[in-house]
Design brief:
Blueprint (H helix, E strand, L loop, with lengths): L3 H19 L9 H12 L2 H14 L14 H14 L6 H42 L4 H36 L7 H21 L4 H22 L7
Helix pairs in contact: 1-2, 1-6, 2-3, 2-4, 3-4, 3-5, 3-7, 4-5, 4-6, 5-6, 5-7
Length: 236
């Protein structure tokens, strides 16, 4: 179960990455690699956070909320993947915990998408409020509308991370003990397949020679990890 301090930290990370995704700053905090790493640091599992972020980054590398297009919420998924991996049995290998977190968090990206769209619709009413204020000679109405819209995105990210995080922890703690004994070994196999799945997602969005070079360099670094570290990069 998440402590009060962990819950507050989780909510702050969720709110910040939700805010950074579209509403304010946009400094790449919302990318799974960054958001998951921050979540892992808050929960005391920085290695799990890093590798959850790496795998989700591969899956959603080319997805960005541009214009009217609202992709699955990769920021929320990155945060929840780490929470779910943290909630997995401590006796499990890191590979199995990471795989469990990533597999369960991917559908949460779809839930985050609907939450994002709901906040956007909620903020539509602020346009008319700002116009009425300006018509009445209150120039500060526009700034207040902006601040209120930003705060709503932060609130949605905060509550989404906390509510779904606690629900996910409860689900893992209740269901995993009832699962077959081979679940951990099965998830270890999934962990081996996830990088290939992420590479396939990258290849599906292939764009020219520059990206080819970047992909090959990344693949070489990934392959060098087991050689230099004596095993998978996230192995304890």
């Amino acid at each position: 179960m998440l402590s009060a301090g962990a819950t507050l930290g989780l909510g702050l990370v969720g709110g910040c990455v939700g805010l950074d995704r579209t509403a304010f700053f946009q400094g790449a905090l919302a990318r799974p690699l960054v958001g998951a790493s921050l979540t892992g640091t808050v929960l005391g599992v920085p290695v799990l956070g890093l590798w959850c972020g790496v795998l989700l980054e591969l899956l959603w590398l080319a997805e960005a909320p541009l214009g009217a297009f609202v992709p699955p919420d990769e920021a929320l998924a990155g945060v929840l993947a780490v929470v779910l991996a943290w909630a997995a049995p401590a006796a499990w290998s890191s590979e199995a915990r990471v795989a469990l977190g990533v597999v369960l968090a991917v559908p949460c990206g779809g839930l985050g998408r609907y939450l994002d769209m709901a906040v956007r619709r909620w903020n539509d009413g602020l346009v008319q409020r700002a116009r009425r204020g300006l018509a009445q000679g209150a120039p500060g109405a526009l700034g207040r509308a902006h601040l209120l819209g930003i705060s709503r995105f932060f609130l949605a990210g905060f509550l989404g991370a906390v509510v779904l995080g606690h629900a996910g922890v409860a689900l893992v703690e209740c269901v995993v003990p009832l699962a077959p004994s081979g679940l951990e070994s099965g998830l270890q196999l999934v962990a081996l397949l996830l990088p290939a799945l992420g590479a396939g997602a990258v290849l599906a969005r292939w764009r020219g020679a520059r990206q080819t070079l970047r992909f090959l360099c990344g693949a070489a670094l990934w392959g060098a990890g087991p050689v230099l570290g004596g095993g998978l990069p996230w192995r304890r």
